[in-house]
Amino acid sequence: MKAKRAIAIAAFAAGAALSTSAYAANTCVIAGDSYDLDDAGVNAIYDCIKDQMVEAYAKGGDELATAYRSWAPTATRPAVAGAHSERFLMTFANDIAAEQYLKFEDEGVQMPVGSILAKESFKANKKGVVKVGPLFLMTKLEAGAAPEYGDWLYGGIQPNGKPLKIKQSFCHDCHVGWEDQDALAYPLEEVRISAE
Fold first, then answer.
1. How far apart are CA 48 and CA 131, in angstroms?
2. Which domain holds residue 152?
3. Which one, 16, 44, 67, 90, has least CB within 10 Å?
4. Would 105 be classed as within a structural domain?
5. Considering the chain, what percentage of its residues have pLDDT values greater than 70?
6. How does pLDDT run across 78-98, given as a tens digit for each residue?
């Protein structure tokens, strides 16, 4: 309970609308509109839910469900970038992907084969309770392996640890909008971490 109070106090001091709830252990709650949170408020929510995300994704035994946290973070904090059902997103890049991805280039991007991006997600429901969303995954395949999808394999892990069942076209039809960036969407500029 002390940890929950500390989160609430830190968020309150920063002017964020974060509160805690006694009705369930490990419940993260946002009072008000989650999109009005400042950096400290978003970080407080992320600190509250980040361990729950890894635990949820790991339930199915997929090794990526825990390995991704040792990869390079691409942002200073989660942010809502528009797609992915208006969820807060935090992206991690494996060693193969990190150098190129962290350049955040607008054109001529070609990610190396074996690049993997893992995008955590969470969202507050109408009552302000923050829920773990899917872990979205993008894996760069060898040239010609999936030419209709830019040689990307789109996938994910649900909060129950099971594979996310999605059509490749569902993801790629949005990502193709960033064709010059090898179908990569980046975190919001104000939260990006540079490779330099």
1. 11
2. 2-191
3. 67
4. yes
5. 84
6. 998 766 667 999 999 999 999
Tokens of 132: 């773990």
Residue 56 covered by a domain: yes
Is residue 196 assigned to a domain? Answer: no
Task: Specify the pTM.
Answer: 0.84
Query: What does 83-132 look like in DSSP terms, one character per residue?
Result: HHHH-EEEEEE-HHHHHHHTT--SSS--PPTT-EEEEEEEEE-TTSBEEE
Rounded alpha-carbon distances, angstroms, from residue 47 to 18, 22, 29, 104, 109: 12, 18, 12, 26, 33
Say which residue the tokens 């099971």 belong to.
162
Task: Output the DSSP codes for 52-85.
Answer: HHHHHHHTT--THHHHGGGSEE-BSS-EE-SHHH
Say how many domains are in the chain: 1
Confidence of residue 31 (pLDDT cuts 50, 70, 90): confident
Residue that has been written with the tokens 């942002």 in this structure: 75
Classify residue 176: in a domain, yes or no. Answer: yes
> DSSP for 132-152?
E--EEEEEEPPTTSSGGGTTE
CATH of the domain at 98: 3.50.70
